[in-house]
Each structure stands twice: as C-alpha cells, then as structure tokens.
Design brief:
Layout: E1 2-7, E2 10-19, H1 22-38, E3 42-43, E4 46-51, E5 56-61, E6 66-68, H2 70-73, H3 79-98, E7 101-102, E8 111-114, E9 120-122, E10 129-130, H4 135-146, H5 148-151, H6 158-173, H7 179-190
Parallel strand pairs: 3-9
Antiparallel strand pairs: 1-2, 2-5, 4-5, 6-8, 7-10, 8-9
C-alpha cells in the first residue's frame, strides 16, 4: 500500500507494508537500519510503525524514482537488458551478503535501481535475516537462479548464468566470505 503522511504541513509519500506479527516488522526495520549503517547497499528508508486492530505495519519513505528490475525483463529477449538484470542481481546479493544479511526471497522482482542515480537498491526485505552462518548465501543464489524462468524467456543456459551472475558475484565478495561460504557458492555453480 502507498499513501502520504503529513507532518508540519509537509507531505511525505510512504509505503505501508503489513506484517504478520511484531517480530517480523521489527526484524525488517532492524535489517534496513543495519544496511544503512553498513553502507554497502541502500534499502528504503524506514520511518516507523503503525498498528491496526490485529495488524502491524512498517512505514518506509516511498521513492518514486526506484524501479524494480522485473519491469526491465517484461517482454524482452534483449541480451544487454538480461545481462544487466543478472549483474544487478549479483551486485545486490553480494552487497547484502557482505553486510551479513541474507535476502530470504531473492529474485529479480526484489532487485531495484534508482532511475536518477542508477544506484542498486535492496527491496522487499520482509523475509531477510542476519546470516552469520552463511547458509543463506547458497539459498539466495539458488532462489535467484531458480526464479529466472519466471521473468526471462527463453531459458538461459548455465554458461550465461555463470558469466553474468555467478562470476561477478564471486569477484564482488572475494575476501569478504569465509572459505566455507565460498564453497557453498561453488556448490551452487556445480549444480547448474
């Protein structure tokens, strides 16, 4: 849901997201604050919470210049656009993982960019979690790859995915992931 919030005669566009429980809302809020403080990737700016009769909602600043990458893949087989989408997926996941966060719902529709700056953005962090063990890394990589056919047609071959998604990801996280975490990414690659 989207709307406007008014404070001191100033209208602020907001996104209002329902959560099943307080823990979920707090988790997303804390993760977005953590990502902002780490500075690897910018999420939406959290503003606070609203509560309803049986619901809790997070409020975030709505930025109309931020566009989800699934809009780019709509009705296209343009190789340059598809390469860009894969590269941005790699960048987004690498930046989240370097911050110690697993997305939880990694797919094209949850990667975005600012049309003004071109800056990658992390969106829809409802299922995200702090991931000190690194188990979420392989889960995120699998999820992103497994959902590609939902957005890109015809299906991409494994070499293409390696070249434009896996390899850029590995170069971006070099030195930031433990050997165990790097091995889990290599297992994803070998299972393509």
């Amino acid at each position: 849901m989207f709307g406007n919030m008014s404070t001191n005669d100033t209208e602020i566009p907001v996104a209002i997201k329902p959560h099943d429980n307080i823990a979920s809302a707090l988790s997303e809020f804390c993760i977005t604050q953590h990502l902002i403080s780490e500075g690897h990737i910018k999420p939406y700016q959290p503003l606070g919470f609203l509560s309803g009769r049986d619901s809790i909602y997070t409020l975030s600043a709505f930025e109309d210049d931020v566009v989800s990458y699934d809009t780019i893949t709509d009705s296209t087989d343009n190789p340059k656009k598809i390469q860009k989408v894969l590269l941005v997926g790699a960048v987004t996941l690498a930046r989240l993982h370097k911050s110690g966060v697993a997305h939880g719902d990694a797919q094209i529709k949850n990667t975005a960019f600012s049309v003004k700056t071109g800056e990658e953005r992390a969106i829809d962090l409802t299922s995200s979690y702090f991931d000190k063990s690194g188990r979420g890394i392989a889960d995120n990589m699998h999820s992103y790859i497994d959902t590609l056919p939902d957005y890109i047609s015809p299906a991409l071959d494994n070499k293409y995915i390696e070249k434009y998604f896996i390899d850029p990801y590995l170069s971006l996280v070099a030195g930031a992931l433990s050997k165990k975490q790097q091995n889990s990414v290599h297992r994803v690659t070998s299972s393509l």
